[in-house]
Amino acid sequence: MELTGAEILTRCLEDENVEYVFGYPGGAVLEIYDAIFRQDKFRHVLVRHEQAAVHAADAYSRSSNKVGVALVTSGPGATNAVTGIATAYMDSIPMVVISGQVNRPAIGLDAFQEVDMVGITRPCVKHNFLVKDVSQLADTIKKAFYIASTGRPGPVVVDIPKDVTQQKFKYSYPTSVQMRAYTPVQKGHPGQIKKAAQLLLDAKRPLIYVGGGVVMGNASDEVRELARLLGVPVTNTLMGLGAHPGKDPQNLGMLGMHGTFEANMTMQNCDVLLAVGARFDDRVISVPQHFLSSPKKIIHVDIDPSSIAKRVKVDVPIVGHVKDVLADLLNVLKQSDHKQADITPWWKQIDAWRAPNSLYFENSDTIIKPQYVVQKLCEITGGNAFVTSDVGQHQMFAAQYYQFPEPKRWINSGGLGTMGFGLPAAMGVKLAHPDADVCCITGEASIQMNIQELSTCKQYHVPVKVINLNNRYLGMVRQWQEFFYGNRYSESYMDALPDFVKLAEAYGHVGMRIEKPSDVEGALREALAMKDRLVFMDFITDQSENVFPMIQNGKGLTQMDLPPHMRNLQVAPPTPVSERDYGNLC
Amino acid sequence: MRHILSILLENEAGALSRVAGLFSARNYNIESLTVAPTEDKTLSRMTIVTTGSDDVIEQITKQLNKLIDVVKVIDLNEADHIERELMLIKVRATGKDREEMKRMAEIFRGHIIDVTEKTYTIEMTGPGHKLDAFIKAVDEALILETVRTGASGIGRGERILKV
Ligand SMILES: Cc1cc2nc3c(=O)[nH]c(=O)nc-3n(C[C@H](O)[C@H](O)[C@H](O)COP(=O)(O)OP(=O)(O)OC[C@H]3O[C@@H](n4cnc5c(N)ncnc54)[C@H](O)[C@@H]3O)c2cc1C
Ligand SMILES: Cc1ncc(C[n+]2csc(CCOP(=O)(O)OP(=O)(O)O)c2C)c(N)n1
Ligand SMILES: [Mg+2]
Prior knowledge:
The complex is a heterodimer. Chain A is an alpha/beta fold. Chain A folds into 3 domains: 2-170, Thiamin diphosphate (ThDP)-binding fold, Pyr/PP domains (Rossmann fold, 3-Layer(aba) Sandwich), CATH 3.40.50; 190-354, TPP-binding domain (Rossmann fold), CATH 3.40.50; 370-540, Thiamin diphosphate (ThDP)-binding fold, Pyr/PP domains (Rossmann fold, 3-Layer(aba) Sandwich). Helix content of chain A is 36%, strand content 17%. In chain A, helix 4 links the parallel strand 4 (68-72) and strand 5. In chain A, helix 3 runs parallel beside helix 4 and helix 8 crosses helix 14. By secondary structure, chain B is of the alpha+beta class. Chain B folds into 2 domains: 2-78, ACT domain (Alpha-Beta Plaits), CATH 3.30.70.260; 82-152, Alpha-Beta Plaits, CATH 3.30.70.1150. Chain B is 28% helix and 40% strand. In chain B, strands 5, 6, 7, 8 and 9 form a 5-stranded antiparallel β-sheet that branches. A 4-stranded antiparallel β-sheet of chain B has the order 2-3-1-4, with helices on one face. In chain B, strand 6 and strand 7 (119-126) form a beta hairpin. Chain B is elongated, with a radius of gyration of 18 Å. The relative contact order of chain B is 0.21. The interface between A and B is medium-sized, with 17 and 20 residues. Flavin-adenine dinucleotide (FAD) binds at residues 91-92, 152, 211-213, 216-217, 237-240, 254-259, 277-279, 281, 283-284, 302-304, 307, 321-322, 391, 395-396, 414-415, 417, 476 of chain A.
């Protein structure tokens, strides 16, 4: 029997075991929406803006082992999706985005709602396709899922002209994919792995630096085993939070621009660095020359050769899947009769760096400190909630003060830093994990970038908890203006804020305003107890709070601005002149 | 340093723009780029001449390999290779210049492939520097038009780029 292109598409999605499609209809995808209406294998979630569909699909992927799917119409639907696609691309998140396109004969004629989606998204997708004939549709969808989820994951766009969705063809879903030009490596080179083992055993000041690749590559168990076996310290990037338990004594917390003092000092001063699924981002190592000015041997495990030696030269590159490489490395280490060097002096040093507690903050009983809210949330949920966030100070406070025991619980936009990510992301996560607590830590500015999704949450009954750390400022921008622009708060004050409580209620949810520190815990408990309601908690927080530690533009890893109680400790060797300014944008 | 990269890629619509887009998005130089299908109709062969430090060339190669449509990439500079470029150049050929042009074309082993009362069109192949030399050798005022293909490159002997 022959099916229409639209029916073939829905059948493909069924055969990929897709559970949810996040989307928004329009002319070019009406045929597809009709096929969706006539099937009952997957559910469609009608968002209120296409950007949110893509973030929801992305977060669905981030929190599970599945590939999220978004569906948008041509033209404005497609362009609205682009920010979401770029967000997923920067964080290497697998996702399939299906966009409608105008009829084939109309392509290139400036037809109504025509945009060159393949052209627009080319620089921010892992790959994209324009389906030129219905006979290629099933094959293309299969490839899209395969490419998105293998190798270094990433978003794949499939652009389907409307007349292709109306064409008929026999349906059969391919069982395998053959692509001569795309063959991701899995196993690391055994010789390199031996070298790495040797270096790690001989190291006097070792460190494991864990990134998002470990989270997405499901190699958290291997990292934990390795850390235990060698007794070495572990630090993680913003994207790696949870890959190694935040509360583990061997965990030094996040490193980088807003990382802990101990993590950055350890990173700078280690003699052997094992980097796994992390990409030496500019927010992590700052100025490469400064980072390399303390000599160290670097072992870099990454599935993408282009991540290796991109910003720093490494001594032992290992291309492969983190899970395989770490499993092999563990085997080599377990079989080795080579004695491990004594690292107790190293731990002594690290403990000394740890002692002043760079995340200490002066709590107040008159004004709510944002850090305190996150701390309490972590305590009350036992670290077991899924936490999504937006972008700004609240994101950093969430990363610093919520200690994730498990990977895939911390869902944020690190690479692109997309404000507006948090709420739609929470929606995607909650649908993937209906029984879990899902909290969106946000700011009054970020939340307004996709606040319309409160309506989607109502329609599909998605009872997430919104924790709005409301400082009436574009806080992160204000912080930079305070530090670098002489307190000239140009356009960073959010005037005329809505009454978030009434707004939440208008959308059919529960709203709470919390103004006193003594009410924080009770409010959180009360909200979390309302399992089947979306609760919007508007915490009125300290306007002048800053995120510490902080590494300023062009400064080295050890040249942190420290919190007030550590100011006397300021470590600031001179920065070597940088050859290239890697920028560091707010 | 100048490098010649040889690339085998799927002969698909859009493959060229993926490569060209990569170079502009990542701020890599392109001196020239040529592309055409090979004897296997499903594959195109591209030659890109680029400049950059060894680190940059390494990144370019890795980034190219990452493109789903790219089947293979080699840096021809890593071993012996041959490089050729085709130029068509139209020159003013009147009076005493007419004979002189013909002589110059012969010296450089060019062929005159179109003749009018006032012009010659000369076809010339060779490594880029030979074509440059020809352009330098003739009186600038007499050059009416030049069109160059950019370099094509191939490894010497048994060094073969194939799937
Ligand atoms: C306001 C703000 C402040 C920030 N401050 C900080 C900060 O202080 N500290 C910080 O760390 N970040 C910070 N970031 C985030 C930063 O911009 C980067 O997104 C982040 O550091 C990158 O994390 P990563 O190195 O783990 O790489 P990811 O982007 O997670 O990349 C993963 C790497 O792993 C590889 N990989 C993927 N899958 C596999 C696999 N299966 N096997 C092997 N390798 C794999 C990929 O090829 C890639 O190289 C901040 C962001 C914002 C918006
Ligand atoms: C879409 C987008 N626009 C602009 C920015 C730049 N930016 C980064 S943080 C920030 C302020 C965020 O304010 P808010 O959500 O209130 O969080 P806060 O920093 O106050 O906690 C801005 C404007 C961005 N990251 N994303
Ligand atoms: Mg704010």
